[in-house]
Backbone:
């Protein structure tokens, strides 16, 4: 920790005020480049690497300040637009993400296009200065609170399947967009199905070039794997955008709410591990040598994940580091589930008030998710095999055959 943390702390002491509204505080963070410090300065960031980002987050945590907006806009859309958008798009489309004014969702997966995402069938047909969009998306996390969506749709079915796709910043508040929540076994509806029926997107909202959407989408997926596998300094924050209703709330109140566990997103990290050990000690379970062994293994996995994230920062890091980090995160969730269930016993099946038990229950119910979203474990292994180990790609006619001529199921 060094100069960046000190500089950030100085800025926070002149700007953080728990009486500010969330929207005002986020605007200050965005104007100063602290909302997303790893973005380049021209895209509203500070051009820091990940260790600089850790320093900024540590300074915010030390001050007890509300963190930057959460969600897929910050995690995926902002870095994708910073990399592929025009200066005008950065100003108009990216900046409202940094100040939390707009929340985003990721309109990628379809009923017949998950792991094989390039098989997507949603279409965007040019009509003057606009495209008309039709199709169905599914598993759209946060679709019900999204102002905008990262939409990939087929603009040319006569090109091979990876080459006829374009990427759009898509307005979710329009006629022809029907968002229907899907309830999962956690009891919440994280994701949705989204039906798009003759909706419109201006041509000027295409990110990257026409037909180049697969490459842009791969940038989004890489940012997703990087952030899903990474360890970061946890900060209290809340959902951005016009629908969630947090922008006019008091920033200090949001910090307290998260600290009281009302809005927290559980993560199988070192804090979780410590609480689990404390509970096992309290319940007299630490005499069990098998449990002790598994707890130490879990600690080692958390630590390995931290070191993998650190290794990923090195310029010579393997290009597969994000994929490896994402695989490790799946394993962490699985192991956290097994350990929580062992320590909690029957209590693991009971819903409780915000507490460690509630957090563990959430992890148990949510644990299958990380091995699926952002590309399944099997797909991560395929990528590592093909792109890093140089194993042959799966054979097939897909590379050169027009999408319209490919067999469909
Ligand atoms: C909690 C959660 C949130 C999500 N949020 C979003 C979101 O916001 N936006 C979005 O667009 N999508 C989202 N998804 C969808 C996610 O990206 C897909 O579920 C994922 O890509 C897998 O696709 P699928 O479900 O169609 O499974 P399929 O692709 O049908 O796969 C079924 C099984 O076959 C295996 N398989 C498939 N192909 C291969 C292969 N070539 N080699 C080896 N094994 C293979 C898979 O690993 C899997 O086990 C989310 C999913 C979850 C669980």
Residues:
């Amino acid at each position: 920790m060094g100069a960046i943390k000190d500089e950030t702390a100085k800025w926070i002491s002149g700007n953080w005020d728990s009486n500010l509204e969330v929207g005002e505080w986020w605007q200050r963070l965005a104007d100063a480049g602290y909302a997303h410090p790893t973005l380049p300065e021209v895209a509203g960031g500070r051009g820091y690497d990940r260790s600089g980002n850790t320093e900024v987050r540590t300074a915010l945590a030390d001050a007890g300040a509300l963190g930057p907006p959460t969600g897929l806009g910050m995690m995926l859309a902002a870095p994708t637009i910073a990399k592929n958008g025009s200066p005008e798009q950065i100003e108009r489309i990216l900046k409202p993400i940094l100040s939390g004014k707009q929340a985003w969702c990721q309109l990628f997966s379809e009923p017949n296009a998950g792991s094989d995402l390039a098989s997507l069938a949603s279409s965007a047909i040019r009509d003057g200065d606009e495209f008309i969009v039709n199709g169905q998306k599914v598993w759209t996390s946060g679709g019900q609170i999204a102002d905008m969506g990262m939409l990939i749709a087929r603009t040319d079915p006569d090109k091979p399947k990876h080459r006829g796709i374009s990427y759009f910043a898509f307005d979710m508040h329009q006629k022809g967009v029907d968002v229907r929540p899907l309830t999962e076994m956690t009891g919440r509806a994280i994701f949705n199905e989204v039906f798009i029926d003759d909706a419109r997107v201006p041509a000027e909202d295409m990110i990257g070039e026409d037909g180049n959407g697969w490459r842009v989408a791969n940038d989004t997926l890489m940012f997703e794997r990087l952030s899903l596998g990474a360890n970061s300094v946890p900060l209290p924050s809340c959902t951005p955008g016009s629908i969630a209703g947090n922008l006019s709330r008091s920033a200090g109140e949001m910090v307290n709410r998260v600290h009281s566990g009302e809005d927290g997103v559980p993560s199988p990290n070192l804090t979780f591990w410590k609480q689990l050990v404390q509970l096992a000690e309290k319940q007299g379970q630490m005499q069990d040598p098998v449990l002790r062994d598994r707890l130490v293994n879990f600690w080692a996995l958390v630590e390995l994940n931290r070191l993998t994230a650190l290794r990923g920062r090195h310029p010579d890091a393997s290009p597969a580091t994000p994929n490896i980090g994402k695989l490790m995160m799946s394993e962490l969730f699985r192991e956290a589930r097994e350990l929580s269930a062992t320590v909690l016993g029957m209590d693991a099946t009971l819903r409780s008030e915000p507490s460690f038990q509630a957090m563990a229950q959430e992890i148990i119910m949510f644990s299958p998710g990380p091995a699926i979203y952002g590309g399944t474990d099997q797909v991560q292994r395929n990528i590592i095999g093909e792109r890093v180990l140089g194993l042959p790609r799966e054979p097939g006619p897909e590379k050169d055959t027009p999408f319209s001529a490919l067999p469909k199921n």
Summary: Residues 289-312 form the longest helix (24 residues). Strands lie at 104-107, 123-127, 130-138, 148-154, 165-171, 177-182, 191-202.
